[in-house]
UniProtKB/TrEMBL annotation:
SUPFAM superfamilies: ATPase domain of HSP90 chaperone/DNA topoisomerase II/histidine kinase. Residues 333-385 form the HAMP domain. GO terms for molecular function: phosphorelay sensor kinase activity. This is Sensor histidine kinase. The chain crosses the membrane at residues 20-42, 311-333. It comes from Cohnella endophytica. PANTHER family: SENSOR HISTIDINE KINASE YPDA. InterPro entries: Bact_2-comp_sensor_kinase, dCache_1, HAMP_dom, HATPase_C_sf, HATPase_dom, Sig_transdc_His_kin_internal. It comes from the Bacteria. It holds the Pfam family dCache_1. Its main location: membrane.
Length: 600
């Protein structure tokens, strides 16, 4: 029966290993699934909350801005209320009648008309300008007082083209740069026409300049993390506030996917890529003022909490998996303990130790198998003792005797090689020889079976030839011609090593070279091993004497190697193995062994 190579497949795994793998996968898989699903739900919930929170926050900011604009509009309403409107009309008529050079009385009237609006108490008002019909304008700077601007004409102002003099209500013009000041800041302008009582005649215009500083104060503490950008746009899409790389007064340039069409929608919140980085872009549009609040926030800062949960989840999965593996190992080894004891007993049985320990008193499957094997081992032991034991012991004694003849001869040659290398000063080579010798005798000592695979035997042979190579150097040339599938065949250990040793000793050609070929072929059910040298050959008469020695079983010291090989073949294989020696004078020698091809 051919032997097949044992493969490390799942079917060949120990039961304990299978249980460990199964339990570990089940428990760690459950832990991982629960962890991943929980994290997935948590991260989605957090993302939804973040996407809801940011619009709610900027919506609240937008409502504050609506209040700010409402306060500015309240100034215009206050101006139209009695008795304020009467004072303003009188002051405008007085100023218009005096021309560009105004007397002190006009200055006082204009100043009082504005002061009665209580704008000094309104921090969001930067200044108020009263434009006369023909003479000029009076500018009142909050906290600093007023000044007459004789060269100012409302028709030359940027907002005049949008004024409908028939419309009695205030007109909102958005962000404009303030003139006639040292710092020239941007302000938010609202213009209210001042009409004659009971008619549509325009006496002048009241311009309220709202300070944008209130917006800066309102958004000063807003911080969603570094690189966060926040913008406030007026109803003309001009920037009123910018926390980022934009300037106040610039026109919005369709950034972050928010063009004019998108900005006309009530609100929007979505993730977009900005310079390859994921950002949350959220904005809201005020239905009262038309102002827009835009927030651009890097997603990584919004997801800091989520990332922490992710790493904690990962750590929990790793810890849970580790605990699961340890628990699986303990459980599997506990469940298979008796099976492993049974396997150890079977290994002893393989070594012809038929004294199995008393089986545990259990009625489960393992206990029944153990009892059955114990009974079978006892019957086999009796049978071997009665029928085969004497013959087996006799053959084993003879084989061990032959092996003991091989070992001293090989050891003597090996030590001679190492002594020669050491004496010649080749310490590196001597060290390699000692390592090789140790490997060789480790193989010979540890090997506890007569039959070994050809692959293992060739590993031993190559170590042996490596040591001989250290001795002979380039003088020794080795060629291998071995069928790959034949390496799985089993044969007696150290079977053809004496043949190789003889070839090295007697295989030198007239030029001093030793050329040896080891040829191993596996064909059908036969393994053929040939050791070929190109030495001086064996004369016919001497070859006949060698065969006589092999048949008789006795010979001189020079034939011990061949005799040992021949006798081991006969003891192990009987008539199923053959040995051939073919030699021609000056043409070398071929020693061939033919034995059954035994593959596991």
């Amino acid at each position: 029966m051919k032997k097949q190579k044992k493969q490390w497949t799942i079917d060949n795994w120990p039961i304990a290993t299978k249980l460990i793998v199964v339990y570990s996968l089940l428990i760690s898989g459950t832990i991982s699934t629960v962890g991943i699903v929980s994290y997935s739900y948590y991260s989605r919930s957090m993302e939804n909350q973040i996407r809801d929170y940011i619009p709610q926050f900027i919506g609240q900011t937008s409502r504050h801005l609506d209040t700010y604009q409402g306060e500015l509009l309240y100034v215009t309403k206050t101006a139209l209320a009695k008795p304020n409107i009467a004072s303003i009309r009188q002051a405008l008529r007085q100023a218009d009648s005096m021309g560009e050079l105004q007397p002190l009385i006009t200055y006082i009237q204009l100043n009082d008309a504005i002061r009665q609006l209580n704008v000094e108490q309104r921090q969001y008002v930067r200044g108020i300008t009263l434009y006369t019909r023909n003479s000029g304008a009076f500018y009142y700077n909050i906290g600093e007082g007023g000044v007459w601007l004789g060269n100012r004409n409302y028709k030359k102002e940027s907002w005049y083209s949008e004024i409908d003099e028939k419309n009695p209500g205030p007109v909102i013009f958005g962000t404009e740069k303030l003139k006639d000041t040292l710092d020239s800041p941007f302000v938010f302008k609202i213009v209210q026409p001042i009409r004659s009582q009971g008619s549509q005649d325009v006496l002048g215009f009241l311009e309220v300049d709202g300070s944008l500083q209130i917006i800066n104060t309102m958004l000063l503490d807003v911080n969603f993390g570094p690189d966060t950008r926040i913008f406030v746009l007026d109803h003309h899409n001009r920037i009123m506030y910018a926390k980022g790389n934009r300037s106040v007064g610039e026109v919005w340039n369709a950034e972050f996917g928010l063009d004019e069409n998108e900005l006309s929608k009530p609100q929007r919140s979505q993730f977009v890529s900005v310079d390859g980085v994921k950002h949350l872009v959220s904005y809201t549009l005020s239905d009262q003022t038309g102002w827009k609040v835009i927030a651009v926030i890097p997603a990584e800062y919004l997801a800091k909490g989520i990332n922490k949960v992710k790493w904690w989840t990962f750590a929990g999965i790793v810890a849970g998996t580790s605990v699961a593996v340890i628990a699986a190992i303990l459980l599997a080894y506990s469940m298979t303990r008796r099976l492993r004891l049974l396997v150890l007993s079977l290994r002893d049985l393989e070594k012809n130790d038929f004294q199995m320990p008393i089986p545990p008193i259990r009625s489960d499957e393992v206990g029944r198998v153990w009892g059955a094997i114990s009974k079978m081992a006892g019957r086999i032991h009796v049978l071997i003792n009665e029928v085969y034991q004497s013959k087996i012991l006799e053959q084993e004694a003879e084989i061990r005797s032959l092996q003991s003849q091989i070992n001293p001869h090989f050891l003597n040659n090996s030590l001679e090689t190492i002594r020669y290398l050491t004496k010649s000063g080749r310490t590196q080579s001597a060290e390699e020889g000692l390592v090789a010798l140790a490997d060789l005798f480790r193989y010979h000592t540890v090997r506890n079976q007569e039959m070994v695979s050809l692959e293992v035997e060739m590993a031993f042979m190559k170590n042996y030839l490596h040591m001989q190579k250290l001795r002979f150097g380039d003088q020794l040339q080795i060629t291998y011609d071995i069928d790959e599938h034949a390496l799985q065949a089993y044969l007696p250990g150290l079977l053809f090593q004496p043949l190789v040793e003889n070839a090295i000793i007697h295989g030198s050609n007239p030029f001093g070279m030793i050329a040896i070929t080891i040829r191993i072929k596996g064909k059908e059910d036969q393994l053929t091993i040939s050791v070929i040298d190109e030495g001086r050959g064996i004369p016919s008469k001497q070859l006949n004497e060698i065969w006589n020695v092999l048949e008789l079983g006795t010979g001189n010291q020079g034939n011990v190697g061949l005799l040992n090989v021949y006798r081991r073949l006969r003891l192990i294989y009987k008539e199923e193995a053959e040995m051939y020696i073919r030699s021609e004078l000056h043409n070398g020698t071929i020693v061939t062994l033919k034995l059954p091809l035994n593959i596991v």
